[in-house]
Amino acid sequence: HVQLVESGGGSVQIGGSLKLSCAGSGAIFSSCRMGWYRQAPGKERELVASSTGDGNTQYADSVKGRFIISRYNAKVSLEMNSLKSEDTAVYYCWASSGGYCYDNYWGQGTQVTVS
């Protein structure tokens, strides 16, 4: 079983910065990805960024060059810079697990508001 506990989030002005952190426990493997999803009102949940334990990262096109994901073992953080109003959403820490990394786990979500 995997548990994910998020911290960070809040309100920030357009152009500002914010950092999210997530601490995982349980069966989190370095070969499986951890990262962040977000969901804005009326929109589907989307993958923002992910990383394997050895630093293989992926980013959504909308955040490339602005967001930085970092991972150390079962901890993952998301540094968000040059924030835009469209970045406003609930951000969820995510971890894949299991033998083929098919099992998905989610944190409780943290609100990020950019205005």
The major β-sheet equals:
7 strands, mixed
The secondary-structure class comes to: mainly beta
How far the N terminus sits from the C terminus, by CA atoms, comes to 37 Å
Number of helices: 0
What best-fitting shape do the alpha-carbon axes yield? globular
Helical residues, percent: under 10%
Whole-number average pLDDT?
A: 96
Low-confidence stretches: none
In short:
The chain has strands at residues 2-8, 10-12, 18-26, 34-39, 46-51, 57-59, 67-72, 75-80, 89-97, 103-106, 110-114. With 115 residues, it is mainly beta. The strands form 2 sheets. Strands 2, 4, 5, 6, 9, 10 and 11 form a 7-stranded mixed β-sheet that branches. A 4-stranded antiparallel β-sheet has the order 1-3-8-7, with no helix packed on it.
Describe the structure.
The structure is a single chain. The protein has strands spanning 2-8, 10-12, 18-26, 34-39, 46-51, 57-59, 67-72, 75-80, 89-97, 103-106, 110-114. Helix content is 0%, strand content 56%. A hairpin with a 6-residue loop joins strand 4 and strand 5. With 115 residues, it is mostly beta strands.
